[in-house]
Amino acid sequence: CLASYPFWGLALMHKGNKHGFTLLVISLALVILAHNLTALVVAAFLLLISLYLFRNRVRVLWQALTAMLLGIGLSSWFWLAAIGLKGHVRIDEMAQGRFDFHHHFTPLTEMFGYEAVVPVGWVMPLILLLAAAALVCGYKAPLVTGLLVAGAVLVVLQTSISEPLWENLPLLPLFQFPWRLLGPLSLVTAILAGLLFYKYRRHRRFGKWIVIILIAGNAIPLFRQYEPLSDNYHQLIADSVNPAGIRKQGLAATVIDEYLPQGASKIISERVPPGSVVLPGSIPAKVTIKNSINLTLETATDEPGVLHLARWYFPGWHVAIDGKEHPLLKDRFGNIKVDVPAGQHQIHLWMGQPVLRQWGIAASLFSFFLLVLLRVSSKNVINISE
């Protein structure tokens, strides 16, 4: 639902409204934070539409491109670490098994309607057909043509015809379900609907009501399919879908184990009670402080030993023994282990920010201050009306 706001920002910039720049920056950042795969599609459309809208206005084009870069920079505290550190986790599992795109193509005859995996109704194909008819009847609009081509591509990508593209284009398999492209397709058809409405209905008194009636007529069958959750499910959600419930019941917080370190195994972790800190086979240790990213333990051994902890090894973890930082190791199951010398010791384990996250935060702060500077600049460099 956020995906339309960056395009609204572009439209305001096209009209000479200086607030469009800020709207484009902030809304693009929000789209990236909401769903990074959708953001890839939105960014591509933003770039193409900007190149078309501002093809004869170089200054405004540069401002639009600057706004997109600032939006990307504003959200870099998230995506920079997510992309740069993905090699430490099992990102490949996100495109395997039931998440393999090969199993989720939709026949064209079942793509639209009310019985599909994600029902969208009949308004979407109707708009695409009306746009095609408008072009055939002489409506000369490169933007409509481009959007119609984009819509056709998004439709084809949801069918098995596009299987070679899914197998060879980078990042595309991470969409997992081809029908997820119905989201970008909805955005394309929404823009098409707006353009067609503006072209053919702007001078008619009841034009907007026709559009509202069409949308409502499309939505009513979807509302009729709605079934409220039972009381038992409401209680289950209240008891389980919260940090305490997940921890107490040992529930999985993700669908698959893509978050695990490369080569890690859950064999040992699954044998210990939820909330445990020290794994079986470890030297004895007394936990004095415990939370997700901060642990303090006390050990007393006559001989050197190894402390195995129920925490996955990732970049950013640090350990100190008696106040002095100590090398952090990974055992064969992917858990953190610490070589502890003989004697009594206090061991402090904490999670710091990985270097990439620190760079991402710095880039986000720089983008934010640059945005503020551009907004308050006495030269008013964002004033497109000049």
Plain-language structure description:
This protein is of the alpha+beta class and 386 residues long. It has helices spanning 4-14, 19-34, 36-53, 58-74, 76-84, 108-111, 123-136, 142-156, 163-168, 182-201, 207-224, 231-240, 243-249, 355-376; strands at residues 286-291, 294-301, 305-312, 317-321, 324-326, 329-330, 335-340, 343-351. A 5-stranded antiparallel sheet has the order 1-2-8-4-5, with no helix packed on it. A 3-stranded antiparallel sheet has the order 3-7-6, with no helix packed on it. Strand 6 and strand 7 form a beta hairpin. The longest helix has 22 residues, at 355-376. Residues 381-386 have low confidence and may be disordered.
**Radius of gyration, taken over Cα atoms and rounded to an integer in Å:** 27 Å
For the biggest sheet, the summary is: 5 strands, antiparallel
Regarding quaternary structure, what we see is: single chain
Mean pLDDT, all residues: 86
Overall morphology: elongated
- The helix/strand order is HHHHHHHHHHHHHEEEEEEEEH
The tally of beta strands, per DSSP, is 8
The low-confidence runs, each spanning 5 or more residues with pLDDT under 50, are 381-386
Beta fraction of the residues? 5-15%
Strand order of the largest sheet: 1-2-8-4-5
Secondary structure layout plus pairing:
Blueprint: H1 4-14, H2 19-34, H3 36-53, H4 58-74, H5 76-84, H6 108-111, H7 123-136, H8 142-156, H9 163-168, H10 182-201, H11 207-224, H12 231-240, H13 243-249, E1 286-291, E2 294-301, E3 305-312, E4 317-321, E5 324-326, E6 329-330, E7 335-340, E8 343-351, H14 355-376
Antiparallel strand pairs: 1-2, 2-8, 3-7, 4-5, 4-8, 6-7
Helix pairs in contact: 1-2, 1-3, 2-3, 2-4, 3-4, 4-14, 5-14, 7-8, 7-10, 8-10
